[in-house]
Amino acid sequence: MDVRPMTLGSARVAALRTHLRGPLLLPDDARYDVARRVWSAAIDRHPAAIVLCADAEDVSWALRLAAEAGLAATVRGGGHNTAGRSIRDGALLIDLSSLRGITVDGLAGRAFVQGGALWRDVDAATAKLGLATTGGLVSSTGVGGFTLGGGSGWLMRRAGLACDNLASADVTLPDGRTVRASPHEHDDLYWCLRGGGGAPGVVTRFEFALEPRVSVTGAFVVHPLADAELVMRSFRDAAPEAPDDFCAVLVLTCAPPFPFLDPAWHGRPVLISAMCWAGDPAGAAAAFAWSRERDPLGLHEGVLPYVDWQLALDPGAPAGRHHYWKTTNFRNLGDSTIGRLVDAAATLPTPFTEIHLQHLGGAVARVPAEETAFLHRDVPFFVNLIGCSLDRDADGAVSRWVRTLHGALAPEAAAGMLPNFVGVDDAEAATGDARGRRLESIHRRYDPAGLLSRG
C-alpha cells in the first residue's frame, strides 16, 4: 500500500463520524489549530484530520479508516517529543489525550494506565496506595512515548527504566484488531514496545509493575560557573560507585529565581545539581557528599513525598516554548568534554537554554541487553543540549549554538542516541545491526503497509 499525505474525502469523513464517539476535527474546524499543538511550539504541523478518541474503539475505527484511505497515521499521548513524532503534515492524528484512566491494584502491585495518561496522573493515582514506578522527570510527559523510548527517571537506577516495568500492553493494530503484548502473548511485540522507540500499533493500555514508595530525599545545590568543572568531575568520579538509590541530573543554565538563592545570582550562568535519594534518609548525606566539596551558592534539601518531587522540574518546562534539542552518549566523560560543556554555558543563547548531564547504571545496566529493545544499557552518561526560547528561533541563534556544541562533543562521544531525546533533525541509526533488523521485522509483521509513522 502507498501510505502518503492526502486529504480525506467527504464520504470517508461521514463514515468515520458515524462510528466515532469522540470528535473528528478537520482543518476548517474552529478547534483544529488548538488541537494540533504539542508541547514544543517549534513543531508547527498540519495533519489532514485529528481524531480525539473517546475510547479504544475510536482508535480502532481511526486506524481502519487510515488503512482504507492509504493515509499515514501518527499517535499523540502527551505530545512531549521535541522531534514532533506525534504529528505529521497531511497524516491522520490519533489523539489519545482523553484516555487517561488509571486503575491501581495495590495487592498485585500493578497500575493499569490508558494510553493518553500523563505521568502526573500515574504518580497521583499510585501515591494513594504508597506505590510508584519510574516516570518522567517532567510530570506533563506522556506515558506512552516515554515508555516506548525507554523512559529514564528518578527511580530508574533502583527500579529500572519505565520500559523495564512494563508488564503488558493492549495494542490496537492497523487492521483494527487489539492484541495483548506480554512475555507470554505476542512476545515479539512486547520486546519491541520496551524501548524500541515506537510501536507498529497504538498502545491503549499499559500495565506497570509498582514498588513501595512514599517519600524520597530531594536536593538542589547551586554552584557558580567558576566551580562547575570541579563539581562535575566529582560527580563523574562518584557516579560509577553510587548506590542504586541515588540519581542525579546536573544542569548548566541561567539560575532561576530560587527562593533559597541570593537574588544577585538570578539569571546568571550556574550549575544546578538536582539529586534524588530513594533509600533511608540517613544515607542521603553520603550519596550527596560529592556536591558539597565546593561551597555552594545555595542549597535546598529535604524529605518529601515522591509524588511532590516528581513535580520539582516542572517550572522549567512549561508548554509553549520553542525547543531545539540534541543528545549525546558518553562511555568516558573526559575532563576535556566537561570543560567544553562549562565553556558553552558561559555563552547560552537564551536564559532558558540548558545543558543536562545525566547518568544511567544501577538497575538499568543489569537488565540483559537482549531482553528489551532498549539499546544503550551500557552507556554510563548522556548529555542533552536543550535549546529553548520564548519565540520562534527566527535567526537560528539557538539551533546554531546547539549544533556547534554537539559537533564539538562528537569526537569523544559514543555512537547512538537515547530515543526519548532525539531532536527534530536527528535520525537514529537503527537498521544495520541485529536489533535494528529485528525491529524492522516486527514492524513489517504488525504494520505491513507502514501505516504508522516512526519518524
Characterise the protein shown here.
It is a single chain. By secondary structure, the protein is α+β, with helices and mostly antiparallel strands. The protein has 3 domains: 10-95, Uridine Diphospho-n-acetylenolpyruvylglucosamine Reductase, domain 2, CATH 3.30.43.10; 102-212 and 434-446, Uridine Diphospho-n-acetylenolpyruvylglucosamine Reductase, domain 3 (2-Layer Sandwich), CATH 3.30.465.10; 215-421, Vanillyl-alcohol Oxidase, Chain A, domain 3, CATH 3.40.462.20. It contains 14 helices and 18 strands. It has helices spanning 10-19, 32-35, 56-69, 119-127, 143-148, 156-159, 187-193, 225-238, 284-288, 306-309, 335-345, 363-366, 397-409, 434-446; strands at 24-25, 49-52, 73-76, 92-95, 102-105, 110-114, 131-132, 166-172, 178-181, 202-209, 211-212, 215-224, 246-254, 269-277, 298-305, 322-330, 354-359, 381-389. The strands form 4 sheets. A 7-stranded antiparallel sheet has the order 15-12-14-13-17-18-16. Strand 8 and strand 9 (178-181) form a beta hairpin. Helix 8 packs antiparallel against helix 11. The longest helix has 14 residues, at 56-69. The two termini are 18 Å apart.
Reconstruct the topology from this structure.
Blueprint: H1 10-19, E1 24-25, H2 32-35, E2 49-52, H3 56-69, E3 73-76, E4 92-95, E5 102-105, E6 110-114, H4 119-127, E7 131-132, H5 143-148, H6 156-159, E8 166-172, E9 178-181, H7 187-193, E10 202-209, E11 211-212, E12 215-224, H8 225-238, E13 246-254, E14 269-277, H9 284-288, E15 298-305, H10 306-309, E16 322-330, H11 335-345, E17 354-359, H12 363-366, E18 381-389, H13 397-409, H14 434-446
Parallel strand pairs: 2-4, 3-4
Antiparallel strand pairs: 1-2, 5-6, 6-10, 7-11, 8-9, 8-10, 12-14, 12-15, 13-14, 13-17, 16-18, 17-18
